Amino acid sequence: MTLGEKIKLARMQKKISQQELGDIAETHQKNISKYEKDLVTPSALVLKKIADALDVTTDYLLGNEVDSAIKDTALLKQFKEVDSMPDDEKNALMKVISAYIRDFRTKAAYEV
Q1: Domain co-membership, 11 together with 58
Q2: Is 12's pLDDT higher than 90?
């Protein structure tokens, strides 16, 4: 997937227009259109603003992350904090997360 395709996909998932993204990223809507069509590559500064506006990382947009990487920047920041915790604290948190995921999957299975 190209940079432009990723910008467009993330923008559509966020349900914002090119104009809205342009306003947030402090660039013109026409530039957003050109980025999405891969006619022009945004500067590093604009790319960072676009990534922030779309709640993705610049690495994701540039194709430097694997598909399974965390794209939710708020969640990624929290996991980075967890990574710096002592092992016993991390293990306790992992048990809570595992229990929540198990409960979520169970609930989803019964909703089908």
Answers
A1: yes
A2: yes
